[in-house]
């Protein structure tokens, strides 16, 4: 059988092979849609079917379906002049995943009150990471929780072995303790064939996913994570099961060349077992804007857009009888995938879009992309008549910043917004070209909430200097057709005195058999405390599962894959 799975752009055809039975389902998927200014880009956001059902959906008048532990022991050789302070953890051993997702609580005593304190981790290989500084309280104590999610967001499996948690203060005190990082073992083994495929190849041949280690003939929950961090539960309605040997196979194939480029996550859960793996989709041939899409008018009221026939548009310049995907991007950056339609024998088509009620005002962009070549066209029109939902203005204080300034707590880049729905909270992240989060001073993400005046602001400072290059600041929040999904380009340049980011050297470690006993703090009078300064705000996400996912779907690629 073949049927729609979700409404999200290019459709994914999935062939299930279990115990000899074969079935086919249409799985919706979209390339990361571009911002209106860069329609050929493969980075953007797509609405989930759940969001559309909650808030009402845009509809297309005519459619043909949905677009688819080793033995090492380590200790730092601290300088003789360093005052040693005792450090303890709430756990002496932890699995990789949980160190990433929830971390450990670090307690240090005997520090200078008010001093700035930096906590770091030295892995068994000698590689290091440091968290944002905190302040010692009036008793000279620090109690704080650290997790690798905030310093290495995309790595859910930090290095195994005996690691060292280090504490150092601006007053010259230092201490450390050991943490045994154990492996997170997947009971279910997952693989794909091939492990890398291009957008264009994905149209012609499938990716076959194999999973083993299930109980025989048991229900399987398969979750597919897209490069843009969306996650879909595959075969939720059909019901997936392992065969009599506890094995499971699934074939994924696109019906469009517009699939997302990047890392795809395959996650499985069954009973108390889990497992995951990834495969890569690479870019296909260069896409060109050599077609035309013309809206019926330059402007339409909110009321008229919500009523039949809505906003009409005409297409031309496509191949005869070509199929095309249609995307609509709102004035707030939310992109809805409207499905697939077909041109006539002359490569033309006329169609129309209707909207949910109460959508935001502002400029909207309609994008039509050929499913066979990926070439496209865009057209714009303005929506009026809803002053209660204006087109929000969200921007950066600068579009270019040096690596050093971006990592300077007194500098950074400010994201500011106005005319944002009061009370709306936006999650803000800094992404590189591979759409991987870069750690900020406040953690993996920053947050900003609009006040009663509709204004919001947040300053983004990186935890360490970034390599020069092109980055994207992504602000998202809200739900449905009125959601915010804003992507702002940021160019990071090299500092005048350095061409590459520098990292403070870590004290070289020497192998030992066990942690040494730390001396008690000296009773000497402490040095005068420096003037206090605010510590970094904690990341307000105590729960590592940061996105709404249909139960029992697993988290998205940027959150725990367990």
Keywords:
single chain; 562 residues; mainly beta; 7-stranded mixed sheet; 6-stranded mixed sheet; 5 helices; 40 strands; globular; disordered N terminus
- The residue ranges in which pLDDT falls below 50 over 5 or more consecutive positions are 1-55, 68-78, 499-562
Structural class, from helix and strand content? Answer: mainly beta
What is the number of helical segments per DSSP (H or I, 4+ residues)? Answer: 5
> What profile does the largest beta sheet have?
7 strands, mixed
Terminal Cα span: 31 Å
For the secondary structure, the number of strands is 40
Q: What is the general shape?
A: globular
Radius of gyration: 26 Å
What level of helicity do the residues show?
A: under 10%
Name the beta content range: 35-45%
Question: What is the mean predicted local confidence, pLDDT?
Answer: 80
Please provide a brief summary of the model.
This protein is 5% helix and 40% strand. The protein has five helices and 40 strands.
Characterize the structure shown:
By secondary structure, the protein is mostly beta strands. 5% of the residues lie in helices and 40% in strands. The protein contains five helices and 40 strands. Strand 18 (219-225) and strand 19 (231-234) form a beta hairpin. The protein is globular. The two termini are 31 Å apart. Residues 1-55, 68-78 and 499-562 have low confidence and may be disordered.
């Amino acid at each position: 059988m073949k049927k729609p799975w979700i409404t999200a752009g290019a459709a994914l055809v999935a062939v299930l092979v279990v115990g000899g039975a074969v079935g086919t389902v249409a799985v919706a998927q979209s390339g990361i849609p571009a911002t209106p200014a860069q329609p050929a880009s493969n980075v953007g956001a797509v609405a989930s079917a759940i969001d559309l059902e909650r808030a009402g959906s845009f509809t297309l008048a005519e459619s043909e379906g949905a677009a688819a532990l080793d033995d090492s022991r380590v200790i730092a050789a601290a300088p003789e002049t360093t005052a040693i302070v005792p450090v303890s953890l709430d756990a002496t051993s932890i699995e990789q995943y949980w160190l990433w997702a929830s971390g450990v609580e670090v307690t240090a005593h005997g520090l200078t009150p008010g001093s700035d304190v930096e906590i770091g981790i030295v892995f068994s290989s000698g590689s290091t990471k440091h968290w944002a500084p905190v302040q010692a309280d009036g008793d000279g104590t620090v109690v704080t929780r650290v997790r690798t999610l905030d310093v290495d967001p995309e790595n859910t499996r930090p290095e195994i072995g005996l690691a060292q948690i280090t504490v150092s203060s601006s007053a010259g005190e230092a201490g450390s303790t050991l943490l045994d990082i154990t492996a997170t073992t997947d009971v279910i083994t997952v693989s794909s064939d091939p492990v890398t495929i291009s957008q264009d190849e994905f149209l012609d041949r499938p990716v076959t996913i194999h999973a083993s280690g299930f109980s025989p003939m048991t229900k399987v929950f398969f979750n597919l994570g897209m490069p843009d961090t969306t996650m879909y539960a595959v075969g939720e309605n059909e019901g997936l099961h392992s065969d009599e040997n506890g094995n499971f196979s699934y074939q994924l194939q696109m019906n469009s060349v517009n699939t997302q480029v990047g890392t795809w996550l395959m996650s499985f859960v069954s009973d108390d077992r889990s497992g995951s793996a990834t495969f890569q989709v690479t870019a296909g041939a260069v896409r060109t804007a050599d077609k035309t899409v013309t809206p019926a008018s330059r402007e339409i009221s909110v009321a008229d857009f919500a009523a039949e026939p809505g906003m009409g548009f005409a297409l031309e310049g496509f191949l005869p009888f070509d199929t095309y995907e249609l995307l609509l991007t709102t004035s707030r950056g939310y992109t809805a995938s409207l499905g697939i339609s077909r041109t006539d024998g002359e490569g033309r088509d006329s169609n129309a879009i209707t909207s949910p009620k109460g959508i935001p005002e502002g400029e909207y962009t309609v994008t039509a992309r050929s499913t066979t070549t990926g070439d496209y066209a865009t057209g714009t029109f303005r929506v009026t008549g809803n002053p209660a939902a204006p087109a929000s203005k969200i921007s950066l204080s600068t579009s270019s910043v040096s690596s050093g300034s971006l990592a300077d707590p007194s500098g950074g880049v400010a994201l500011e917004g106005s005319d944002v729905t009061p009370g709306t909270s936006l999650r803000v992240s800094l992404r590189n070209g591979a759409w991987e989060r870069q750690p900020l001073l406040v953690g993996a993400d920053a947050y900003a909430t609009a006040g009663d005046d509709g204004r919001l602001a947040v300053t983004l400072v990186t935890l360490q200097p970034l390599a020069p290059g092109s980055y994207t600041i992504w602000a998202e929040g809200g739900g449905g057709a009125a959601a915010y999904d804003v992507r702002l380009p940021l160019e990071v340049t090299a500092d005048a005195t350095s061409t590459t980011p520098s990292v403070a050297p870590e004290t070289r470690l020497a192998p030992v058999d066990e942690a040494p006993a730390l001396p008690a703090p000296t009773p000497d009078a402490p040095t005068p405390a420096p003037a206090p300064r605010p510590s970094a705000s904690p990341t307000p996400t105590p729960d590592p599962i940061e996105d709404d996912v249909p139960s029992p779907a697993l988290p998205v690629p940027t959150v725990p894959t367990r």
